[in-house]
Structures are given as C-alpha cells and as structure tokens.
Records
---
Amino acid sequence: MEKVKCLIVGGGPAGYTAAIYAARAAISPVLYEGLEPGGQLTTTTVVENFPGFPNGVDANALMTDIRSQAVRLGADIRRGSVSAADLSSRPFKITIDGQTELEAETLIIATGATAKYLGLPSEQKFRGLGVSACATCDGFFYRRKDVAVVGGGDTACEEATYLAGLCNKVYMIVRRDVLRASAAMQERVANTPNIEILWNCNTREVLGDSSGVTGARLERKDGEVFDIKIDGFFLAIGHHPQSDLFARWIKTDEAGYIITDGRSSATNVEGVFAAGDVQDPHYRQAITAAASGCRAALDAEKFLKR
C-alpha cells in the first residue's frame, strides 16, 4: 500500500494551489484531480477578475498554468477519483477508482461544489455560451444586455440585483407566486426598476444559435407558453458540495458544506483539512478558493511538523 504524507483530493483552484504550497514545503503532495480537472472554472470561458491578468485570461489556460506550476515544484498530480475513504484513524485509508489504496498522513479535501442545473439538454448545450451559474464570474460579459436568473431564494435575488447593475434588463424566472428570499432581499429586488419577475414560470428550453443564447422558452402554471429574448441565462437554484464521501467522519452544515475551525482550514478530524467551495457557501470565487488552498497546505505542513 502506498504511503503519502499529504494527499490532496480535487483539481480546481483550491487543490492546485494547495499542491503548489505543499510542494514548496517539501511534504511530497499527491493530488488526484477527480472527474473535472481544473474544477468548475473550466465551464466558463474568459476570467476577468483573477488578479494579474488586466485583459482577462482563458479559464482553461489559467488552470493549466496553475497545474503546471504545481508539477514544476514537485507535486505528483494524477488522474483519478476517490471512491472510498476511512478517516477513523491516521494514517487515513483512501481508495482511488475502486482499485488503488493509499495511506495518507494528512488529507486536504478540495472537491468543490457543483451548481444545480435544471437538467435540460439545451441548458447543457449552451453552458459557457450564455448559460452560467455564477453572475459574479460572468456578469461582466452581459453589460447593457438582457439576461434571466432562475430561482426565488436569497442567492437568486442577490445574483439578480448584481446583474441589474450591469445589464439593461433582468428577468427573474420564479416557479412559485412568491419569493423564498428574506424580506430584505425581496425589498431590494422590488426597488430595482430593471428587474422583472416572471411568476409561476418554469423553463422549458434555452434558445440559441451558434453564437450562444438568444432566448428562453417558458411555461406558466396555467399552460401558457411564451418566449423571452435574452443573451444570458443564469442558474441560482443552489450548489451541492462534494463532501458525501467524507460526511461519515467530517462535520458539515445542513447543506453539506464542510465546517472548518474558525480561520483555519482544520476540520473536526485531526490531520484533515478542507479548502475551496466544498467549505465555502458564500464566496465561490477562484481567487478565494486558491487562497483557501494555500491556507490548507500551510496548516497541513504545521500539523506534520508538530
């Protein structure tokens, strides 16, 4: 059985950054990238808000560069996903793809959180071409254009009001006749003149062509079907943190986000740390994920020295 000082699970900004810092700390990190090397960031096109790129940067190129930096510094990055874990005692026992078994002195969980989608084929067809699950990431590309936000909770209201500051018109597609959001968020939406709420509506299809999204086909509860013209279609119906494999041992909140100890990345299990969107229900940005990956590697280094 292979023995590893520092095992990192997840190949997004948090995992790759943790690998960079762990490699420089000489704790021989081994990283398994999971099913989506590069993480959720690779589902977008150009990243405008990552520091150091005044003209923006291609998302896939950014993640490739961060990965290459980790490899150059000595990180062992591998393809594969965790299929089983036993965190009942150290060293932790981890199984990769149902075959490879490892023993890890420390574990950094950076498995991320996946956005919830409606499950429409057309929605998947236009991912990265007008369909997005992050207004903060992609809203800039829709300045002075018309967009739609799906959802009726606090996140949807927050995304809609953010986009309203950039876009000409923001439709909120709400499947009920009320918003689930807090009173404060509802008031903010009501006081934003370029937000229009489409009540009792479900999305039947995202419309588009070779250039991207051009509209959405909606259906009201009474059966009426109609189209709206939009350039961007934003999902705000929640995220699912990829913590299920570890939930038997690691404390999570009600939504499944891993709970860390105050300002550190430490979990309730000694030697296990969490970084990135799997422990962050609030910010969900590449730069904050990268920063938490740095913290997790530094915490793991200190733990091993102690």
---
Amino acid sequence: MNFENKLISGVFIKRYKRFFVDVQIENKIITAHCPNTGSMKGLLKKGNKVWVSKSNNPDRKLKYTLQIIEDDRSKVGVNTHLTNKIVLEALENNLIKEFDKDITIKTEIKFGVNTRFDFLINKKNYKAFLEVKNVTLKRKRKIAEFPDTVTSRGAKHIEELIKASKKGYQIYIAFIIQREDCNQFTIANDIDPTYSTLLSKAVKKKLNILCYDCKFSPKGIKLNKKIKLKI
C-alpha cells in the first residue's frame, strides 16, 4: 500500500478533540487530521517524530493527515483507514498463506441487520469472513497488544462472526501490527477483560486468529510476516 504523496516529517506537539493533532514542521505548527479513534496509548509523547501526508484535495479543511509516529525508535502506522488497504493488497498478492490462490475477494460485506465485515473470501464451496483490527500498542519489549481501549465494537464483531460460523462461514480476525519491533502478539486483558474473554470463547467455536506485522518504506506500508500469538 503506497502513500498518495511523499510523507513530510515533523514533531508531535499534542492531540485534542480526538481527531486533531498539532505538529511542528520546521518552524511552523500545523493542525493535522488524526485518523485513529483509539487511545493511541503510549504514542502521544510530545517531541516524538511523526510523518504526515498532504492532501491533493483543495477543498479539504485539514490539509494534512497523521500517518506515522515514531515510538521507541520504531515507526508505528496510526492511520486505521489504511489497514484494510494493506490487507487487500496482501490478499490479492497471495501473501496471507492461510488463504488459497485464485480466491474471490469482496469488501465491506453486510451480514445480518447492522453488521459489516471487512472481507468476504470465496472459492468454490469455501466462504469466509475476515475482520481486520489495527494494532499499535506495545507496553512490553517486543510484545504487541490489542485493544488500547475498551472496544464494544470489537466485541460485537466477535459475536457476529460466531453467528456467521453457524451459517457455514469460516471466520477469521486478522490483527495487523503496524510496527516492526514486535515478535509476539497478545490481548490486553487488563484494558478490556470482556473482549479478552469473548475472544477466547470464540476460538473454541472455530474463530481463526491471524497476526502479521508490517514493513515500512518511504513509499508505503506492506504486510510483512506472521507474528507469534500468545494468549
């Protein structure tokens, strides 16, 4: 997944009103859009190096978007809107080995009354729903964690995936770790014990968990390698 424009480096100042961040670029401070609804726990330290992109849309109120924050000398992708694009590119190029080649991929598929799953994957008599979660939290050395705040939406997705399983679908959650400095992934059960318990129960009901980290380059972010799951 390549960025639309070359990234611009700056220094993080503060986040406020959830979707706004102030960033110092050279000798001026700009306000950028923060495309992440999570707490971004551990990342919002004044003085952290950041990278933003500038929009080509002349009518956009906030011209800049926060894309990457540096934490503990590692780049962390914070734009949750890009996560599905990273996964879609990986699926199209057969980089997620849990799925066969020559699959049909559909995005944002409605299920039930009020649910949409990120991907529907088909091949002959095989059908699977794949839900994607963006991971940025790291509190212990080389261990990525999810969630970074209580996620009722995430819990709902697990419950709906279980319903889909009963209707004959294979079910998956992919935790995409947008950083390069972790070799394990676990659930932050102290942050959201309800989510942790529900996920463990879902695994017993045939929920498949995928964990992959990402590779950064000046051009973009790509899916990299599988990460060990620790639950």
---
Amino acid sequence: MEIRIVTPAAKGERKGNRVTALRWAGHLRALGHRVRIAGDWKGEPCDLLVALHARRSHAAAEAFRAAHPWKPLVVALTGTDLYLDLPGSAEARRSLALATRLVVLQPLAMRCLPEPARAKARVVYQSARPVPAPPPANGAFPICLLAHLRPVKDTSVAPAALRLLSPGSRVRLLHLGAALDEESAARARAAAEAEPRYRWLGERPRREALRVLAGSRLLLVTSLLEGGANVVTEAIAAGVPVLSTRIDGSVGLLGEDYPGYFPVGDAPALAALLARAEAEPGFLAELRGRVASLAPLVDPRGERERWRGLLEELRGDWARRAPEKAGGR
C-alpha cells in the first residue's frame, strides 16, 4: 500500500506527535508498505491516509474523504483531542465520523469517545527500545522530567516539590524540554536559581534525553493530560519507575493500582512520593517491579503486529465496500 501519515508536528520537531509519526512509519515500512509523512494532504496518490490529531489534521481528513469516499482513513487521537477538543470542536468530532478506524494509545481513552465511535476504535500501544544507561551518579538520587515548557505539561510542579524536600535530600532533577517562548524560559531559569537541585537543560537531542532517562532513578510526569505519553512508554522500556499525575493517559498504561500517582498540580504530594522513593528502598523496588512487569506492553513487535492487524481489517472493509477498488496494492 501507499500510505501517507499527516501530522501537525513539523519535520525536525521533537514533540511527541512527530516521534509517533516517525515510529509508525518505520513499522509500516517494515510491513512492506511505502510511507510518507507530511503536514497535510493535497491530493497526492495514496491508498490509506493516517491523520494524526483529529482537530489539527481535520482539513486533510475532510479532503481525503471527499476525494476518496471508499478508501480507508485512520484518525489517531492525541491527548488534546480526547480531553480538550472533542467536547467543543465540531472539526474533531467530524474527523471521528469520517474515519474508517480510530487509533487511541491506551484503553481508558475509549471513555472519551462518543458511543457510536467506540466500535471502530483500536488501541495501539506505543513502543520503545531502551538505550544503554550511563554510569550511576555518585551519591545523588537522579530523577528526570522530559517535557516541553507548555501549560499542559505543568512542569513548574516539579521544582516546587523539590523545595519541599529536606535539606539533606540527595534528589537531583534534570529537566529536558524546549521553552516555547521567552516567558516560560525565564520562569524555568528562575526556578533553577531558587532551587539548586533543579536543572533545566532546554531542548536536547532525543538520544541524549533517552540516556538521561536511562540513568535516572525516577521519571516525573506532571501533565494535566496525556493521550498516552511516549515518555512513559520509554520509561517502561528502560525499566525506570514513573511518578505521574493521576490522569487517564498514565493510568491507562501503568494500571489503576500503580502506587506512583499524585493529584494534578499537587507539589506536596509529589514531594512526599519523592521523599519516600529516596528513603524507602522497598517502595522504589515496588515501583521498579511494577514497571518491569509492563515491558511486554511496549515491545516494538507488539506495536507492529497491532498495525498489521489494523491494516488487515481495513483491507477487508475496502474489499466489502468497494470491490472494484480492491485490486490495488
């Protein structure tokens, strides 16, 4: 098949949507298909369009469906789609109606979909491969936060929590992520000046970010919402425990009873978890064991097989609905 993936994340960006599009393209090529990634669809020949982001890729989905009423269209739903856009965006809801299939990244996302849309939704867990860990930090308790400085990531909670730790705490936080404006950069620099256990390194290459993750005792996820964060998947692959806000995007991956959650925006609760993880080896081992048990979920072979199964479904639908068009690749 000739497949086109449309994503609002531009070439060269390190945001989650671009990472997802690149990884999916790799899986689809490994399955024998020709794949291109673009920011829009302008009528280029393809057998399948994958629109990553229901609202922001709506124009591409609408144009493709108008030009090809019978060809398969997959709409992949981000956290912004699920938890912000669907209630108020007619374009996002229209994309759901146009789609042949919907892709979500964790099962709790189904709860956000209108009842008629759930039957055509499929869960495709994101996958990751671990990278070698650097040598352990001498005497420190390194943790990391891999998130751009966007309001939805609520990254200011992390340094606020560090300020509540005891003076003797060995916790050291490395924060990697781009500032999208000077105001957010200034806040991050001010937080680093006020709390020496916090360092903001700005945007870094993806491989460096993964090495920082691999060398950390904990990953922090402070987001207000996530569709199913790449970074949680990457932490599972690396065997690094996660402390996360209790949001569906994390609960759908880590499990309802995972012991490392804290309420959104609650710096004292995060500080209490950090102090416990540092002081109680048993608690840290429990977190590590729970994450290790999830490793099969993020195996790249599983993600590829889910895409294989989805494509087989789409071929069957296409053959039933438009037999005269089913003789293509």
